[in-house]
Design brief:
By secondary structure, this protein is α+β, with helices and mostly antiparallel strands. It contains 13 helices and 22 strands. The chain has helices spanning 5-14, 29-37, 68-75, 83-95, 180-190, 205-212, 221-229, 314-328, 360-371, 393-403, 406-409, 427-432, 462-472, and strands at 18-22, 45-49, 59-62, 104-105, 114-117, 138-141, 145-149, 156-159, 163-167, 170-173, 195-200, 234-237, 244-246, 251-257, 264-267, 282-294, 299-301, 334-339, 348-353, 380-385, 410-417, 436-444. The strands form four sheets. Strands 5, 6, 7, 8, 9, 10, 11, 14, 15 and 16 form a ten-stranded antiparallel sheet that branches. A five-stranded mixed sheet has the order 18-19-20-22-21. A four-stranded mixed sheet has the order 1-2-3-17. A hairpin with a 2-residue loop joins strand 9 (163-167) and strand 10 (170-173). Helix 4 (83-95) packs across helix 8 and helix 6 crosses helix 7 (221-229). The longest helix has 15 residues, at 314-328. The chain is globular.
Length: 480
């Protein structure tokens, strides 16, 4: 495990998993180069330096969890573990309940190498990208971690929320309604107070993943990150915000979110995780930055939503593992669960099941449909047989094409809660703020009632293919 982003980059570099790009422009070019690499399988992450208009050493890192090897490196798993194997390892870890290890306060850390206050505060000191053509500005917070503390309980929450720069000392932070960060800030606002905030714009990917996870209300992602790492995260107690801030972070912006109406700014548009500009621009309360901490030669961690054939998301692995565990507790015979990155987020899920009784496959799909939270815009739950690898979209499409009768194999549930960023929300829904959508359960399985009479598949069994690979893998392309 890695204590900071630089250790992660150095190890990835040793393994040939880093490409360095010098001379790119912050305006669109960094984003477009990153997007281009999503068309290439197993492409290394990208470290941008000597960005036009900025000194050497002020860098941006993108595509940092975009391949199985990078995800394995982050999580400490075998480097060659593949998709469903990664999910199985995560599933086993989560079944054992990862311990929560609280952070450890230290007196100083590398993030204190540079302290900017007063007139020295300048968000444009860093090569903040404008990621995509229709973005409404420059966004420093995409792979960020936003730290807040509940004023009632003292619970520390970390979430990933986009942060747009407006001027040298002002930004905005977009939080969807109901997110933990939104709940906390509204408690301060209800008291007529500003909400203290610290935005980490570069940390090791394991800590970022913990903040990106769906930890339960009241559980600190700092504690969860410590449990994943096996040792506490080192933090400093900020005298400005009274928040615990990671001592080995790259850049930290400290300040306060003003109450609505005090100084609202037009936030967005921004290319959202759905791959669309669905929600446009809106007025958001200003985030007034009062202090900036940063390391020498700081690195912005960039994770803009992008569409790409070879775009992986570490969260899809953890979501798959969590749903698999939940299914195991209620439905027997589950062989695998996979969230398809090709659909750009959690909108399509495949579940493999070894059918044991009539209605078994639909039971699995129905439970998944009810378990998924309103924040997960899942539209398609595809249930396949146990001879199908749910993480292989070609196999899933084959099963859909050959084993699903649309007249009997598709059920649609309507009126489910939807995310405001949904691109299918109609103009009327947006005007009335009535965000709902439907969810389909698609059975791409052999009908259990006559499963023994179903025509046999020509596909060789996994056991047979394993023997073939053991004998011939060394001389076949891509099998070693």
């Amino acid at each position: 495990m890695f204590d900071d982003l630089r250790e992660f980059i150095n190890k990835a570099d040793e393994l040939g998993l880093v490409d360095r790009i010098d001379g790119a422009e912050w305006d669109l070019e960094i984003g477009r180069i990153s997007e281009l690499q999503l068309t290439v399988p197993d492409a290394p992450m990208l470290l941008f330096d000597r960005i036009k208009g900025y000194p050497a050493g002020f860098r941006v890192l993108t595509n940092f969890l975009n391949t199985e090897r990078l995800i394995n490196l982050t999580l400490g798993f075998p480097l060659e573990a593949k998709r469903l194997e990664i999910v199985k390892i995560l599933r086993d870890k989560l079944q054992g309940e990862i311990p929560l290890i609280p952070p450890m306060e230290v007196d100083t850390g590398p993030v204190m190498e540079n302290i900017l206050t007063g007139d020295a505060v300048d968000l444009f000191k860093f090569p903040v990208p404008r990621w995509a053509e229709l973005d409404g500005g420059r966004f420093i917070g995409t792979g960020d971690s936003v730290i807040q503390k509940d004023p009632d309980s003292g619970w520390v929450n970390i979430g990933t929320y986009r942060v747009q720069v407006h001027d040298k000392t002002t930004a905005t932070i977009y939080m969807s309604p109901g997110k933990h960060g939104d709940v906390i800030r509204r408690k301060f606002w209800d008291r007529g107070e500003s909400c203290p905030v610290a935005v980490v714009c570069g940390c090791d990917p394991l800590m970022w993943s913990a903040g990106y996870s769906n930890s339960p209300l009241g559980i600190s992602e700092l504690d969860f990150a410590g449990g994943l790492r096996g040792k506490p995260v080192e933090v400093l107690r900020s005298r400005l915000t009274d928040l615990p801030i990671p001592a080995r972070a790259e850049i930290i912006l400290e300040g306060e979110l003003l109450p609505p109406g005090a100084d609202d700014r037009s936030e967005g548009p921004f290319g959202e995780y759905t791959g669309h500009y669905a929600s446009g621009a809106r007025n958001e309360p200003a985030f007034k930055v009062k202090r900036i901490l940063h390391r020498n030669d700081p690195i912005i961690l960039g994770h803009p939503p992008q569409v790409g054939r070879y775009k992986l998301e570490d969260k899809l692995f953890s979501n798959s593992a969590v749903l698999w565990n939940q299914l195991d507790r209620r439905v027997p015979g589950i062989q695998g669960v996979w969230y398809f990155h090709e659909s750009n987020g959690p909108s399509m899920i495949a579940i493999s099941v070894k059918q044991m009784y009539a209605g078994h496959a639909k039971t699995a799909g129905t439970f998944a449909a009810g378990y998924l939270t309103e924040a997960e815009p899942c539209r398609w739950i595809i249930v396949v047989d146990d001879d199908i690898d749910p993480s292989n979209i070609a196999e899933v499409l084959w099963a859909m094409g050959q084993r699903c009768d649309p007249a009997t194999g598709i059920d649609v549930i309507s009126g489910l809660c939807a995310c405001p960023l949904s691109p299918t929300a109609t103009p009327e829904m947006r005007r009335s703020r009535n965000y709902t959508h439907s969810r389909a359960i698609l059975l791409a399985c052999k009908p259990y009632e006559w499963i023994d009479a179903f025509p046999p598949s020509i596909k060789s069994s996994p056991a047979v293919m394993k023997k073939v690979k053991e004998k011939w893998g060394k001389v076949l392309y891509g099998q070693t």
